[in-house]
Every structure is written in C-alpha cells, then in structure tokens.
Amino acid sequence: MRRLTALLALVAAIPLLCRAQEAEPIFERTYLSTDKDVYVAGDRIWCSAFCFDAAGKGLSRSSAIAYAELVSVGGEVIRTAKIGLEGGRGSGYIDLPEGMPTGNYRLFAYTAVNRNEADYDFLLNSKVISVLNALNSSKVRNKVSLVSDALYRQRKEAVSPDRECGELDVRVTGAPEQGGIFRVELENAGSSPVSLSVSVYREDSIAAPEDKSICSVRIPEGNRAKYSGLYSPETEGEIIRATLSGRDRERIISDEAGATAFISASSAKGDTYTSLIGRDGSIVFKTNNIYGQRELVTEVADLEDRNLQAVVDISTPFVRVDADVPVLDLCAAIADDVLERGRGMQSFRMEYRDSLAEFTGRKEEFPYRESGALTYDLDDYTRFPTVREVLVEITPEVRVRGRNGKQRIQVLTKDNDLEGAITTSWETSLVLLDGVPVFRHSDMMDYDAMLIKEIQIWRERFVFGNRIFSGIVNFKSVKGNMAFMDFGSNVRIIDFQGICYPMDYTRRHAPEGGVDRRGTIFWKPDLELSAGQGVSLECLAPDHGGFFRIEVEGVTAEGEPVHKVTKFAID
Length: 571
Fold this sequence. Notes:
The protein is globular, with a radius of gyration of 27 Å. It has a 5-stranded mixed beta sheet with strand order 2-8-7-4-5. It has a 5-stranded mixed beta sheet with strand order 19-24-25-22-23, with no helix packed on it. A hairpin with a 2-residue loop joins strand 20 and strand 21. The chain is mainly β. The chain has 7 helices and 31 strands.
C-alpha cells in the first residue's frame, strides 16, 4: 500500500511540475466596487470584485479567489475578506465593528499571483471610505469633517462632476416615496455584453474622501523580470498553506512513505482536503473554496497509532499592507441632523442586518456526492446507546474489526462483496463525523449514538490526495457541529475565515416594527446584460427622505469600464 501511495503522489505531481515549468507569468489587477463610500460603524460594506488580466486587458479567468483588506490611518488591519471569483467576477462583504472609530480607511484587493511581483503596488486601484460612529460623538469630533445637508450640496456642486464612461442608460420610474416601491431601469446601449454592480443609496452629509470609480482603474502589465512564480495561481479555489510543528516533526517528515495532512470543515457536503507533508515541513492544501466562518480541523493521519505528536499550523494568506490613508480636517461643529440619522442607521443595522440579504448561490465541488450514499436515518430504528452497537445491529455494510489490540470501522466495498461473501481484507475506510475525519476509530465507536441523526455510507474506493480509502462512512450529528467529540492532542481546531457567501441586498418588504433607516437600499453585485438588453429592478424606499444616488459600475466583454450615476430625491 505504501508503494502504491507514493506512486500515486508521484503521478499526481508530474503534471503540476510540467505546468510550473511551462506556465507564463500571470499579471492580474483587482478593483472592488462598493455599495457606497460612507458608512456607519457596524454597517456592512458590500463589495463587487473585478479581476482584470493585465496582458489581455479583459477579465481574468486565472484566479478563483481575491483577498481584501481594510486598513486604518495608523496602519492597523481592521477587517479582511475572501471573495470567490469566477471568470474574473465575484462578490462579498466586510462587516465593520460596532465600536469602530470615525475616520477614513483604505480598502484594497489582490490575488495570490500578485505576490509573485517583486515591485507590485498592493495599493493600486484601492479606494478610501469614510466611517461615522454616531453613537460616540467624541470620536466624531476628532476624526472627520461633517457639514449640514445644504452645505454638503454646495460642496458637491463645486466638485468636478462624476466621471462616467460606457454606454448604459439608467433611470428611475415612478415617484419614490418614503416606504414605497419604485423601479430602477437599466439598458445596455452598447454593442458588447456588460457585467455590472448596481447600488442605490443615500448620499450622506460627509465629504467624500475621493472621487474614484472603475473608470480610473489602472492595469499596468507588470515586469516579467521580477516575477518569482513562487505563488501558484488559485485556479480552482484557495490554496491553504501550512507548516508542521510539534515534538515529532523531524521524524514525521523523514518518513519515506510520506505523511499525509488533512484539513476539514464541519459540513454535510464534506469540505475535506489532503496534502503530502514536504521535506521542509511545508503543507499545501488545494481547495475548491471553503465558504463562511468555519471551524477548521487539522490533523496528520495515523499519528495516534504510531504514538507520534505533531500539529498543523495554518498560515495567513493576507499581505498586511501598510496603507497610506488620508486624515480629514477637524470640524468644530457637527450638524445635529447628521448625528441623529447616523444613530438611527446604526440601531437599524444592529437589529435587522441578518434578515436583509438574499443568497445568490455559489459554485462548489465536493469529493463525493450525497446522491451516491446509502443513508440510514436512526430515528427509523431502535435506538442504541453507542455507535458501536448501531454498526453491529443496523448497518450490515459497515463492520467493526479488531487487530493487534486496535479497532477499526470498515466499509464492505462493492468489489469485496462477492455474492454475499464477506472477505477478510484489512483495508482502511474513511470515517467522518459531520464531514470531519476521525482517524482514531475507537473514539467514534464509543460516541453517544443519541447525538447521531443519520449515517451515510459510500461503498466505493476513494482517492484523497495520496491516500486510498476503502469506502466512506459519515456520521451526521443532530446539530452538525461535532458536539462532545474528543479528537486528541494531535488535532487542532481553529476559527477559519472562508469565502464570503455571495449575496444580494434587495429587500422588498419593510421589517416588522421599527423605522426603516437603511442607507443602502439596493445592492446587486453581479448583473449581466447582453448587448441591447434592459432590466427593471424593484426597490423599496426607506422611511426617511433625502437625496439618493444610483451608481452602476462594470466592465464590457472587452474589458472596457462602465460607470453611470443617476440622482433622485425622496420627499
């Protein structure tokens, strides 16, 4: 088995080595369109990512993930985000802390391959946003310049008009009223398909720090002579890098058979990935993107059986850039109406934030499919106290075997089931609890069966990285959170920041109770329009009047920018 494992690893590595030698440098430039430029503390920044191919000038199809950072004046990284990309486009969000100080912050994005460029400017195409913390006026007075609505409008007239580009018609139909429905009409007047982000929001009385849009994006090609190639393009998903540490680190990495590291996130779909551990202790997991804030379980296989100790340490993928952020002038007087509206918006966000967004779907691929599983719902059977008894009494496809004082859970695969005869082979099956591997099978057999809702069994052989498993059995707990499982000292469970779930912010119904004080009232990050196509978007006005703005940013199929702004008022 060890020879077969090593051979599989070598065969899998050959295409990667060939591609590494033949691959041309990839130069990408990323721009984030946001729903607005001014926010309140505790608000959510909605982001739409445009990743450009610097050589072809159109959207890039190389990277499947972009990284975003929000940095303060003092260089502190306030928030980070991972945005899934498909064909150069993706969407996500950044939740601002509720106690965040008022001031300016810089937001920028990049891909893994940008780290190959020795002279890459990570602040290229970044943007500055302003944050107002109206619940703490002392921070407001020391950080930002606020003015009345009237003075704000005068300033806007004095500033150069919004820079627009592209052939797109944008208009409002109907007479928007507080709490009422109105429509935003878009029509692609150009001869090429466009990919757009659409935002409808209130213009706050804070002087905007920059007048920047996708029209000003710069896409320099990059210097091939300073391209290292150390960071592989993340074409399928995030490449999670890690290192091995612990008492028996050197002994494990010197093993000629090659030790295997696993990472997994608790999931009914099985977010499980493997990697051989390099001779320097490095570990590289190639994923299909793990979504959401998750608990990530890391482990090296079979250490308990060999009485070895080591853990897997995950490395951060973020650059932690020291950004240049402008500080606004101080202001002696703060308009009461600005602070009052800010307080209302913050209170509304805190109460209703989780109920306003809608999922738009996501691209995922899994190592095995639920449709191929044999499933046992334990509520349909007599309940037994331990998993060991359940396997003996309910699941004939799975058996418990003992050898040399060790116990194993083994799936009887289809090719070993010859006319009902049971073979005596000692093959390793993959045992999972809520999609997370459990290599010490005795822990699973003694697990409280009353916590298990369902058992899924796959009776085929599966290859995970360089490991071959004779079938899979997945125990799905009632709550799906691996409750009360002791994984042992070699297992590390960490909070993991996954890919943002792509969502629209297109609420069409007012929340029950309270006053609707939304600043952003509509956000769609991934609208596609073919040449000549139009669309009508339904919007719900908030329970306050003021001056509002429709802002559309996008790119044509040829990589030409599109930016249109339309303003309207709600009485």
